[in-house]
Design goal:
Keywords: Signal. This is Outer membrane beta-barrel porin/alpha-amylase. By secondary structure, the chain is mainly beta. It has one domain: Porin, CATH 2.40.160. The strands form 2 sheets. Strands 1-2-3-4-5-6-7-10-11-12-13-14-15-16-17-18 form a 16-stranded antiparallel beta barrel. A two-stranded antiparallel ribbon has the order 8-9. Strand 6 and strand 7 form a beta hairpin. It starts with a helix and ends in a 5-residue tail after the last strand. The N terminus is likely disordered.
Length: 334
């Protein structure tokens, strides 16, 4: 479930009784491995998410990441760890069309940062190569945001998000001074979403970022198509991802219906030699082939093989992992 969808469901449910005001604890636990050039890295991770409605109009949400990394260093394995909040935000439902958000929030540029980055949602371990474009490298802003549904009709709807972030060098809430937003058009009959994003970096050498995305889930199928393009002052790129769950063969709970093949194609293109955007230093192509298995009780096995091509050398990447999604109330509601 998308993080934003969870928030909207909670907001809508708050008016139906005190039981729905119970805070929720959600998130994912995973154990991931990545083998690149014969070297294997192990990554246990816990990503808890806390969501708490306060009355009929306020909502507090936060996500943290607890990560351990074991990596080969020539003398065996080295070890690093990190613990921190991914974001911490408060929201006020001002009207059916406006929600005001303040605090540390995920920057609304493209789709990956807000919707697909949690470990329990992403189909592949690695994010797209262009995921840092438009998200100011940190992925989060510190300031204010307005978002909501601008127009909602039977045949189409338009939603928006606009934000401003201040500069912060705090270790926990690191952010760059920037502003921007995103507009999405959704066609429910076609199950098609088209979005446009714009962000501007307002510190140092100012820079504009542009993006567009297309998501499509054909009716009466388990096929999902997602794509995104982003361009900055120094580089641009795209990714296209398709996944299909084989539920037509015996249903989603059959042994074959739990299988989910995934394919993602992506490319990045350098516009100059500046390395400030987090993208590869040379033009790069990458194809990811995944085969996931959806076990009962919100558990998934993730496997993938990736082949990366660039002028600096070609690379094979093998990745495996197991992820468990949890969701429960913080305490028993009345």
């Amino acid at each position: 479930m998308r993080r934003i969808a969870l928030a909207l469901v909670l907001f809508c449910s708050m008016r139906y009784g005190t039981a729905q005001n119970t805070p929720l604890i959600s998130g994912g636990v995973g154990f991931l491995t990545s083998t690149n050039g014969g070297n294997t890295t192990y990554l246990p991770i816990i990503e808890p998410l806390f969501a708490a409605p306060i009355g009929n109009h306020f909502f507090v949400e936060s996500r943290a990441a607890l990560v351990e990394v074991f990596f080969p260093n020539g003398n065996g394995y080295g070890h690093t760890h990190s613990i921190g909040l991914t974001y911490l935000q408060g929201a006020y439902l001002a009207s059916p069309h406006i929600t005001v958000v303040g605090g540390s929030f995920l920057i609304p540029f493209g789709t990956y940062n807000e919707r697909l980055s949690p470990v329990w949602i992403n189909n592949l371990q690695d994010g797209p190569l262009i995921s840092s474009l438009g998200t100011m490298s940190t992925g989060t802003g510190l300031g204010g945001m307005m978002r909501g549904s601008a127009i909602s009709r039977r045949k189409y709807s338009i939603d928006y998000a606009a934000y401003f972030s201040a500069l912060s060098q705090n270790e926990q809430f690191n952010a760059r001074r920037s502003s921007g937003g995103r507009v999405n058009l959704y066609l429910p009959e076609s199950r098609l979403e088209i979005g446009f994003s714009y962000n501007r970096l307002l510190q140092g050498t100012q820079e504009n970022f542009y993006g567009t995305h297309v998501w499509w889930q054909p009716k009466n199928t388990a096929l999902r198509l997602r794509s995104e393009f982003a361009r900055g002052g120094h580089a641009q790129g795209y990714w296209i991802e398709a996944d299909y769950r084989l539920q037509r063969f015996g249903g989603p709970d059959s042994w074959i219906g739990r299988i989910e093949p995934v394919f993602r194609m992506q490319q990045t293109f350098r516009l100059d030699t500046s390395a400030s955007d987090g993208l590869p230093l040379v033009n790069t192509q990458r194809a990811d082939f995944g085969l996931n298995y959806n076990l009962p009780h919100n558990t998934r096995i993730l496997t993938s093989y990736s082949r990366q091509f660039s002028s600096t050398g070609n690379t094979n990447i093998w990745e495996t992992g197991i992820v468990y999604r949890f969701l429960f109330p913080a305490w028993k509601g009345k």
